[in-house]
Specification:
- The protein has 501 residues and is of the alpha/beta class.
- The chain folds into three domains: 24-63, no CATH class; 64-208 and 221-234, no CATH class; 300-501, no CATH class.
- It is 33% helix and 15% strand.
- It contains 20 helices and 19 strands.
- It has a ten-stranded mixed β-sheet with strand order 1-2-4-6-7-8-10-12-14-19. A three-stranded parallel β-sheet has the order 9-11-13.
- Helix 2 (39-48) runs antiparallel to helix 3.
- The longest helix is centred in the first third of the chain and has 13 residues, at 136-148.
């Protein structure tokens, strides 16, 4: 008997199908790529394959609701092209005017030969007199004709192409001015390009014996404020309800007068203003912002941000916000529908430059800025409408009361608000600046500490008396029953306010 091995049937081969990147759903690919790709890369991906075109277009329209506008001709041309695209234009909600207005850095030599009033009255004009077409020869001819004309063309006529393009944005509601990009958006310009462009627009440096400008000099460019007001008040554009100014705008008195008759400002519901130490009362920049607030009669949300700069030497008390919120006669501005009020003061990063000497280890601290504003009076005037109050690293004082007294009055006024549901009032625990301390002699004198922005131990009141504030703040926190946070750095006096009752 012969035994033969049974032949086994061959095993079926496992067919491995390799899935290519194009086999994945286009929606999934875009979600993956969008986490690492820039807007420009998404635009390139959109035209790389036909399957990506519809989904990339939808993603761009959904996520890019901001349109940047810079004075250079390339940016202007792109604005026209983007607004002409029906899908992209349909979702744009905000336009941002880009410009570097740090004229103290750009034109330091020029500013040296000018008075402060001359410099802030429109010397910095980065926008072309007429809307650029991108064709240099044609633009030069049009600019020369406008300069030679007896009457300088008004903004609406000179920038008609831009206005006609923005008319195609049905959801446009917000206008801003900033020195750099605020986030994702169409037509972004690199910050270095913004700064370089601004340097080219500066006034020529005058010699020391020629400090006065020549008479009857024709205006060849336009200021940021003029363009902002021109768009904000243009009846052909959708009504703007939100305005954000990331920095102060140099402007002329003539443009300020336009605000007093601009009815469209009354439609503003949200306003965010950033200021620095240059916003002294009665200056053009301050008057510009004050007129904006005074005309925004339907304002519901107000945010004021104070950003110190290198020029601050003794900023223990600041009255710029108080001047913004008061009329020339001293009356406080009132908005019948104001729902939220936010004040942000400088908060220094965690470093060892500021230390608070005590039994605990050294704690980084940032001295709160003291605003010369009757915060209790402001809250009482809006007690029936306020819902959200956020005061970051801010104290307040008045001609009659020191910061701690105003703190108690402010908490009392907040407790009387009927609709209040969110309150934050933080104050950093502060002490001597590190350089104010001498291991051999203890803390230095008031005159030495007062010159340092970061030292908040001492406070000079309206009458000129010097007060040691660190102990008073600790006493106020104890009286109101407010403890420091987990890190022992910040008090939140909002905890002393009863909300939602």
């Amino acid at each position: 008997m012969v035994f033969r091995d049974l032949k086994r049937a061959p095993r079926p081969r496992l067919i491995i199908k390799i899935t290519g990147i194009l086999d994945l759903p286009a929606e999934l690919l875009v979600q993956i790529f969008a986490n690492d790709l820039s807007t420009l890369d998404i635009l390139r991906l959109r035209v790389s394959h036909s399957s990506f075109t519809p989904v990339c277009t939808s993603w761009l329209a959904e996520h890019l609701t901001r349109l940047y506008i810079h004075p250079n001709a390339v940016s202007m041309k792109r604005v026209l092209e983007i607004c002409a695209h029906p899908l992209f234009a349909a979702e744009v909600q905000e336009i941002v005017l880009l410009g570097d207005v740090r004229w103290t850095n750009i034109d330091r030599k020029t500013r040296k030969h000018m008075t402060g009033d001359e410099w802030v009255s429109g010397k910095f004009r980065p926008w072309p007199l007429v809307f650029p077409t991108g064709r240099p020869e044609e633009d030069r001819a049009r600019s020369a004709a406008a300069e030679a004309s007896a009457v300088v063309p008004v903004f609406g006529e000179a920038y008609a192409p831009l206005i006609q393009a923005l008319e195609k944005l049905p959801k446009l509601r917000m206008i801003s001015h900033a020195g750099s990009g605020l986030g994702p958006g169409w037509n972004q310009t690199k910050q270095n390009a913004i700064w370089t462009f601004a340097r080219r627009q500066r006034e020529p440096v005058q010699s020391e014996n020629k400090t006065k400008p020549k008479p009857n000099v024709r205006i060849r460019t336009r200021a940021d404020a003029e363009v902002l007001i021109g768009l904000l008040s243009c009846p052909a554009l959708p009504v703007f309800t939100e305005l954000v100014l990331k920095n102060g705008l140099p402007t002329s008195a003539g443009q300020l007068q336009m605000l007093s008759t601009t009815e469209r400002l009354a439609n503003l519901e949200t306003m965010e203003l950033h200021s620095d130490s240059f916003w002294a009362p009665s200056t053009n920049r301050h008057t510009f912002a004050h007129n904006l607030l005074a005309n925004a009669t339907r304002l519901q949300h107000l945010k004021l941000v104070y950003t110190p700069n290198s020029y601050i030497k003794n900023a223990q008390r600041d009255n710029s916000f108080a001047a913004l919120l008061h009329t020339s006669s001293g009356d406080m501005l009132h908005w019948p529908a104001l729902k939220s009020f936010v004040v942000l003061s400088p908060q220094l990063p965690d470093t060892d430059r500021n230390v608070y000497r005590g039994p605990a280890p050294p704690i980084p601290s940032s001295r709160p800025l003291c605003h010369s504003l009757d915060i209790a009076g402001f809250v009482k005037a809006h007690a029936n409408t306020l819902e959200i109050v956020e005061l970051r690293n801010s104290l307040f004082c008045s001609a009659r009361e020191r910061p701690t007294a105003c703190l108690h009055e402010g908490v009392k006024a907040l407790n009387a608000c009927e609709k209040l549901r969110e309150v934050t009032w933080t104050v950093s625990k502060f002490g001597h600046h590190k350089e104010c301390l001498d291991n051999r002699r203890g803390s230095s004198s008031f005159n030495s500490c007062a010159r340092r922005f970061d030292c908040g131990v001492y406070y000079r009141d309206m009458a000129g008396y010097v007060v040691e504030m660190a102990g008073e703040m600790e006493g106020a926190a104890h009286t109101l029953g407010v403890d420091l946070d987990e890190k022992g750095r910040v008090w939140d006096f909002g905890d002393a306010v009863r909300v939602g009752l």
